[in-house]
Design goal:
Layout: E1 8-13, E2 38-43, H1 47-55, H2 61-68, E3 75-79, E4 82-89, E5 102-108, E6 112-117, H3 122-132, H4 140-153, H5 155-175, H6 179-211, H7 219-285, H8 300-321
Parallel strand pairs: 2-6
Antiparallel strand pairs: 1-2, 3-4, 4-5, 5-6
Helix pairs in contact: 4-7, 5-6, 5-7, 6-7
Length: about 325
């Protein structure tokens, strides 16, 4: 096993049967298509990798600039007999948010594939491992097909997790509302929007890859890419359904909050209606002027309290007859 230069995570020379040919990285500058299909996976956080890509990769300058870009949306651009692609995969690192998707940029033709990254994807390491065990792709288009399939397959757990979260939030809204529920719904909708921002153009990129007449992609690989595209479409449909459920749940939450507020205002209105005449009478008899009725009668206070109780009783009976409560 040869030590890889700094910035080169994977260097794979394919043997055409699903395995690898022993290849010394020192021979990278003399590699030619006749030696076999070559795959390089470069870490762009390393200056040596960026320098090699810029000065010694031998690919079109437009492709070099695209491979070096910090952030890119999924896309496909044909350049000659090769293709420039950008894909996104879910970030499965511990503590990562579902919408924090990791980008990979690819230049590929019949004989060579160069991919670049700033944050690693597990799918790429799995492909390299399958090649090391002799169970991988036979050519560069096979690696691309395998990568597209793995990236989409890993999205299933993320979509399933979002479905479980919206189901939990729906149950919470039915049981009662809370400040945390409102924040969770808003956060869920934001994550779905961020996911669709990348998944929708990724499906378009896959569709373009399938329809573009690149002779080094065979029919079996096109069928596999079509299945991957259909699976990605189902993920998008599931995300749309989750987004709609989240919107309906948020509307239900707002409706319940409005209903609770109306009930509170209703109770306050009833209380105000009960005490308004009582306040008027007590205020009227509390003025500090002569001639207040009963001021000289020792039983006047008890009589007045009785009048107030009777008034409250009459009000409650009236409200009850009007079905106000």
């Amino acid at each position: 096993m040869h030590a890889l230069p700094h910035g080169l995570r994977h260097l794979c020379l394919l043997n055409g049967t699903g395995g690898l040919v022993d290849f010394d990285p020192a021979r990278l500058g003399t590699w030619k298509p006749a030696d076999g299909p070559l795959w390089l996976h470069l870490d762009l956080t390393n200056a040596e990798a960026r320098e090699w890509l810029t000065a010694r990769s031998g690919i079109d300058q437009v492709a070099v600039e695209a491979l070096l870009t910090v952030d890119s949306r999924p896309r496909l651009t044909r350049i000659g007999e090769g293709a420039l692609l950008a894909f996104r995969g879910v970030n499965l690192n511990e503590g990562a948010a579902p919408d924090d998707m990791v980008g990979i940029r690819i230049w590929i033709d019949e004989h060579r594939m160069i991919s670049t990254f700033r944050r690693n994807l597990r799918s790429v390491d799995e492909i390299a491992q399958s090649l090391a065990t002799g169970e991988g792709a036979r050519d560069t288009s096979g690696i691309l097909t395998d990568l597209a399939g793995r990236l989409v397959a890993r999205m299933s757990d993320t979509v399933d997790n979002l479905e479980e979260r919206i189901a939990d939030l729906e149950a919470q809204v039915i049981e009662g509302t809370s400040r945390d529920t409102r924040f969770a719904l808003s956060n869920l909708r934001r994550q779905i929007i961020a996911l669709r921002r990348y998944l929708a153009p990724q499906r378009e990129a896959l569709a373009s890859l399938i329809s573009t007449k690149l002779l080094w992609i065979d029919e079996a690989q096109r069928v596999s890419l079509r299945e991957t595209s259909d699976r990605l479409m189902r993920h998008l449909e599931d995300l749309d359904a989750i987004r709609e459920r989240a919107a309906v749940t948020q509307e239900e939450l707002q409706s319940r909050l409005a209903e609770q507020q109306n009930v509170r205002m209703y109770v306050l209105s009833i209380v105000s209606a009960v005490f308004l005449p009582l306040g008027f009478l007590t205020g009227l008899l509390g003025i500090n002027v002569g001639g207040i009725p009963g001021s000289e009668n020792p039983h006047a206070f008890a009589v007045f309290v009785g009048i107030l109780v009777a008034l409250v009783t009459l009000q409650l009976l009236f409200f009850r007859s009007r079905k106000w409560f």
